[in-house]
């Protein structure tokens, strides 16, 4: 049984394990053949920045892990435009290609299309 | 209606897992079906059998066990999250050469696929802790 599942990732890449464990969940969902989309918003945007030097704090590089999403067939990856604007980050500064930016209204539409939400 | 619950926060530090428990009791009392409770992130701490809260405080671990017993519930703990946080069952303790194990009776350790499956087969997946 395949359902439309949206994973919303709203936390910074380091400082706690939320971002990391959200990615694990996304990968697991794709393996089990569900229709998974991912939305990065609020501080979750920071996960997508290039030039993360996580080895300095003995952590795995979240941005590198995110580049594996396409290998798992996860193609619907969204970023929240207002969250980018609030942090003066432009979409072309982010590590993934093919990101789709959504405004507040688009996010509402995306949420309403889902069967299940996974919020991290 | 078929429900599943995802619990992301540790007991005691946060109200979230207590709320999850109360939600579980409420939905069962209303005749709904609880397919699975899945413990992820710090939620895995709900499953230790070594917590010893004071006598006059609510014992959440025990409450989960009683609920699981009386309703034949599937309480599943994410293996990756559990191993990182020192929650092991007998088999994992042997595998990693650890001197003891602490997964409480009534809980089982399994993969994230169990949360995905719960999302797929349930009408509602309710998250606690974020």
Account of the 3D structure:
The complex is a heterodimer of chains A (120) and B (130). Chain A has 120 residues and is an alpha/beta fold. Chain A has one domain: DsrEFH-like (Hypothetical Protein Ychn, Chain: A, 3-Layer(aba) Sandwich), CATH 3.40.1260. Chain A is built from 4 helices and 5 strands. A 5-stranded parallel sheet of chain A has the order 4-3-2-1-5. The radius of gyration of chain A is 14 Å and the shape is globular. With 130 residues, chain B is α/β, with parallel strands linked by helices. Chain B has one domain: Hypothetical Protein Ychn, Chain: A (3-Layer(aba) Sandwich), CATH 3.40.1260.10. Chain B is built from 5 helices and 5 strands, in the order βαβαβααβαβ. Chain B has a 5-stranded parallel sheet with strand order 4-3-2-1-5, with helices on both faces. In chain B, helix 1 runs parallel beside helix 2.
> With helices defined by DSSP (H or I, 4 residues minimum), what is the helix count of chain B?
5
Spell the H/E element sequence of chain B: EHEHEHHEHE
Sheet/helix structural class of chain B = alpha/beta
| Oligomeric description of these chains | heterodimer
> Based on the structure given, which CATH architecture of chain A is correct?
3-Layer(aba) Sandwich
Envelope shape of chain A: globular
The CATH class of chain A turns out to be: Alpha Beta
What's the helix count of chain A? Answer: 4
Q: Return residue spans of chain B where pLDDT drops below 50 for at least 5 consecutive residues.
A: none
**Distance from first to last alpha carbon of chain A:** 24 Å
The main sheet of chain B orders its strands as: 4-3-2-1-5
What is CATH's topology name of chain A? Hypothetical Protein Ychn, Chain: A
Mean pLDDT of chain A: 96
């Amino acid at each position: 049984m395949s359902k439309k599942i949206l994973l919303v990732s709203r936390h910074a890449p380091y400082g706690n394990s939320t971002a990391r464990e959200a990615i694990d969940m996304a990968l697991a969902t794709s393996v089990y053949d569900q229709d998974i989309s991912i939305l990065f918003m609020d501080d979750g945007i920071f996960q997508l920045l290039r030039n993360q030097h996580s080895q300095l704090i003995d952590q795995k590089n979240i941005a590198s892990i995110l580049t594996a999403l396409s290998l798992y067939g996860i193609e619907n990856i969204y970023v929240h435009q207002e969250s980018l604007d609030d942090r003066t980050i432009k979409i072309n500064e982010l590590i993934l290609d093919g990101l789709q930016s959504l405004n507040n209204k688009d996010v509402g539409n995306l949420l309403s299309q889902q069967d299940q939400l996974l919020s991290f | 209606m078929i429900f599943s619950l995802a619990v992301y926060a540790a007991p005691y530090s946060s109200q979230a897992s207590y709320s999850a428990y109360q939600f579980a009791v409420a939905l069962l009392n209303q005749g709904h079906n609880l397919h699975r409770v899945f413990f992820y992130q710090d939620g895995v701490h709900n499953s230790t059998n070594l917590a010893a809260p004071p006598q006059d405080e609510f014992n959440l671990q025990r409450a989960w066990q009683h609920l699981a017993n009386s309703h034949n519930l599937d309480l599943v703990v994410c293996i990756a999250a559990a191993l990182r946080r020192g929650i092991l069952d007998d088999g994992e303790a042997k595998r990693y050469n650890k001197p003891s194990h602490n997964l409480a009776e009534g809980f089982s350790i399994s993969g994230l696929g169990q949360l995905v499956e719960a999302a797929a087969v349930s009408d509602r997946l309710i998250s606690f802790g974020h």
